Amino acid sequence: PESADLRALAKHLYESYLKYFPLTKAKARAILSGKTSDSSPFVIHDMRSLSEGEQFINCRQIPPSLANQQQSDCGLLHPGDSAEEVEVRFFQRCQSRSAEAVREVTEFAKSIPGFMELDLNDQVTLLKYGVIEVLIIMMAPLMNKDGTLIAYGQIFMTREFLKSLRKPFCQMMEPKFEFSVKFNMLEMDDSDMALFLAVIILSGDRPGLLNVKPIEDLQETVLHSLELQLKMNHPDSLQLFAKVLQKMTDLRQLVSDHVHFIQLLKKTEVDICLHPLLQEIIRDLY
Amino acid sequence: KEKHKILHRLLQNSTTPVDL
């Protein structure tokens, strides 16, 4: 009976993962390997294709109600733009997508059984500290050694192009590529990922938590469910559960470096304003 | 609470827009 409960929990979390996260690992891997009936992603590999890619996203993502109104501005392609302006605008776009992703992760967290019964301040703390870790894990399936899918899988941006940007933009994604290439070798699927994300969110050692015990109890149940899931789903992968948990240590370092880069950007780039939601998360984080 | 008002709102209401 106990393992039936753990399986039910895994199924529930997988269903809410599919509900709240539009681009699954299965879909991303199909796009990356060309095994999808959809058209291939648009490739951004230099400043010119970045400008063209911007136009591509703007034209495809505008809701029909706004399309006419914004058509003249479609693409925001300003021919005289300097590389600096294009980089800053791209960064702002990443921020908007990240803020939207925080909303998706929040909805997923709310669907974890017991999460909404936790103290509201603790729910905030768990999200504040967990959300960037979750976003980095969710980025992994979108990446391979050569680049990453962005804009819901519509665009592939090359790793070399990201490395060619000026500092610190060029330094921001490289650590995520290094992590993702190793993480992808564990070959977790979407149903494994759903449980792992819940484990990350339910970390009882986040600074400032008021009531740790119920969080640890919830995490323990999800951990049991993840352990069982990995044994059943990957019977030949020895010690996979331990290997997955070890990734949580790397994640904390990645987040602290990421926050450092953003603080650096805030100081050095006068044109950059941080999204208010991301500001809330990053302020006094580490 | 003031420091994290958007997170609070997101937790209490799923329709809160984030693109402010």
Q: Can you tag this structure with a few keywords?
A:
heterodimer; A: 286 residues; mainly alpha; four-stranded mixed beta sheet; 13 helices; globular; B: 20 residues; 1 helix; 0% strand
| Biggest sheet descriptor of chain B | none
Kindly report the oligomeric state of this protein. heterodimer
Question: End-to-end distance of chain B, in Å?
Answer: 19 Å
Structural class, from helix and strand content of chain B? mainly alpha
Number of helices of chain B: 1
- Estimate the global geometry of chain A from the Cα principal axes: globular
Number of helices of chain A: 13
- Elements of chain B, N to C (H/E): H
% residues in beta strands of chain A: under 5%
Précis, in short:
The complex is a heterodimer of chains A (286) and B (20). Chain A has helices at 2-20, 25-32, 47-61, 64-70, 83-110, 120-139, 159-164, 169-172, 174-184, 190-201, 212-233, 240-268, 276-282; strands spanning 42-44, 143-144, 147-150, 155-158.
Write the layout of secondary structure elements.
The complex is a heterodimer of chains A (286) and B (20).
Chain A: H1 2-20, H2 25-32, E1 42-44, H3 47-61, H4 64-70, H5 83-110, H6 120-139, E2 143-144, E3 147-150, E4 155-158, H7 159-164, H8 169-172, H9 174-184, H10 190-201, H11 212-233, H12 240-268, H13 276-282
Parallel strand pairs in A: 1-4
Antiparallel strand pairs in A: 2-3, 3-4
Helix pairs in contact in A: 1-5, 1-10, 1-11, 5-6, 6-10, 6-12, 9-12, 10-11
Chain B: H1 5-12
